[in-house]
Design goal:
Elements lengths: L4 E3 L5 E3 L2 H4 L1 H17 L7 E6 L2 E10 L4 E6 L31 E3 L5 E3 L35 H11 L4 E2 L9 H11 L3 E3 L2 E2 L4 E3 L5 H14 L5 E12 L5 E5 L8 E5 L1 H10 L1 H8 L8 E13 L9 E14 L9 H12 L4 E2 L15 E3 L8 E6 L4 H18 L5 E4 L20
Parallel strand pairs: 7-9, 11-12, 14-16, 19-20
Antiparallel strand pairs: 1-2, 3-4, 4-5, 6-7, 8-17, 9-10, 12-13, 12-15, 13-14, 15-16, 17-18, 18-19
Protein name: DUF1173 domain-containing protein
InterPro entries: DUF1173
Organism: Komagataeibacter europaeus (Gluconacetobacter europaeus)
Length: 438
């Protein structure tokens, strides 16, 4: 949350990071503005710099009697209106795969921090964490609220979402690069906790052309590598067999001072290929022929190798224990099929504002939109669905989706493309009057 500016009643500028760096100042200023903010008009209350349709989004100053302290909090039902990079952003779980988790898996704090329950233990030694696998009662909506833990794929999706990389606006053009994306991921990790640790303490982005991230990897291996597993995240260049029957993975930028050997056991490579078939197919293409990037979040054991007189002094050996892959467009937008990629690219080319909900760990029968347009007359967003298969199981699922959308948004209240019968993408819903496309 470093650098987030808050405007207090009366126009005073306030740093959100003071909550950690200067708690006495934090308490003093919020206490001084508490009564004024409660009685002020909406436009004069405490607020961040986010706006929704030209209007500021107010914040609450709350007094917590049990701890005798003051806090800033988002207004009810307004969390989804904040920018995704804002600490006060709270996504609507019903519009993504978040709906598959029970409440304890993702715990949103009032200050924007998130605590998650992972399926993996961060420490390299010690007994595994106990997990309650008692079956949950059946839900009215298939696939909803059944997941008790977050896998590495869910964490990758959470990092991408918290970094604001699931949304697109025309002004993002030429600014969404792999380097920018990974820098945002590093920042997002400072607001996510698991097992009492900040994810950022163990997260090592491999960023092209930035040696400081290479030095960061070596520092984290020295301080954390003996006790904890680490997370590497980067864009995959290659995944190739080695002479020992395993595989080596190369991440884009890995040669820029990282000095890291990254190995993947054959069993884990095969699991990744089965679980992430689109990413595996993309990596099977020559690099010059790929129309998209593959992002990897890898859960690794890492150690320094080489004696003082060895040629490998200062190098790191990292072995992948498990991980997740995700395909993203050249605009850094995730997609799950070639048809979704075509729609995402067409929306970008048309200068539209939209977001891409992510699946997290949800089962396939959970219904949520493939995309949501944010520049139409519909204030809650305009859902978009891509139908791309004709097999029997998918046809039954499609009928369920159509029924859900018609019941929720009304006939004609959502956009769709049947890519199996229509070669051209249908016209997109019009933008609302006055919407800015640049």
């Amino acid at each position: 949350m470093t650098g987030t500016i808050i405007i207090l009643p009366g126009g005073e500028r306030f740093q959100l990071e003071w909550r950690r760096t200067d708690p006495e100042r934090w308490e003093r200023r919020l206490k001084a503005k508490y009564d004024e903010s409660r009685s002020a008009e909406r436009s004069d209350k405490a607020r961040c710099l986010c706006q929704h349709r030209g209007a500021s989004l107010p914040l609450q100053i709350r007094y917590l009697a049990d701890s005798h302290s003051y806090h800033l909090a988002v207004w009810p039902n307004e969390g989804p209106l904040h920018e995704k990079t804002c600490p006060f952003y709270k996504p609507d779980p019903e519009k993504s795969g978040r709906a598959s988790y029970v409440n304890s898996v993702i715990c949103e704090g009032e200050d924007g921090d998130v605590a998650v329950t992972l399926s993996i233990g961060l420490r390299r030694q010690g007994p595994p964490r106990p997990v309650d696998d008692t079956p949950l009662p059946a839900s009215d909506r298939p696939g909803q609220a059944r997941q008790r833990r977050m896998t590495p794929l869910g964490l990758l999706h959470l990092l991408w979402e918290r970094a604001g990389l699931t949304e697109w606006r025309p002004q993002f053009a030429r600014h969404r690069t792999p380097t920018v994306a990974l820098g945002r991921i590093a920042s997002a990790g400072t607001r996510i906790r698991a097992q009492g640790r900040l994810i950022s303490d163990l997260l090592c982005p491999v960023v092209p052309g930035h040696e400081k991230f290479g030095r960061r990897l070596h520092a984290i291996v020295r301080t954390e590598g003996k006790e904890n597993h680490l997370f590497l995240i980067g864009f995959v260049e290659a995944l190739e067999p080695d002479l020992r029957g395993n595989f080596t993975m190369a991440l884009n930028g890995q040669r820029d001072g990282y000095r890291c050997f990254l190995t993947v056991p054959a069993a884990e490579r095969n699991r990744l290929a089965r679980s992430h078939q689109l990413a595996a197919a993309t990596l099977a293409l020559p690099e010059a022929a790929r129309q998209a990037h593959v992002v990897a979040l890898l859960y690794v054991t890492a150690r320094n190798i080489g004696t003082p007189n060895s040629r490998w002094r200062g190098w790191i050996q990292a072995e992948v224990r498990t991980g997740a892959l995700m395909t993203v467009s050249r605009s850094m937008l995730p997609f799950e099929s070639s048809h979704e990629l075509a729609v995402a690219d067409a929306l970008v080319a048309a200068g539209r504002a939209f977001e891409k909900p992510l699946r997290f760990d949800a089962e396939r029968d959970l219904v949520f939109p493939d995309f949501i347009l944010r520049d139409t007359a519909r204030s809650a967003g305009y859902p978009m669905e891509v139908f791309g298969r004709t097999d029997e199981a998918y046809t039954a699922r499609r009928a369920g989706k159509e029924n859900y959308y018609n019941m929720t948004f009304g006939r004609g209240g959502w956009w769709s493309w049947d890519a199996t019968t229509e070669s051209r993408i249908p016209a997109f819903p019009p933008t609302r009057k006055g919407a800015t496309l640049s």
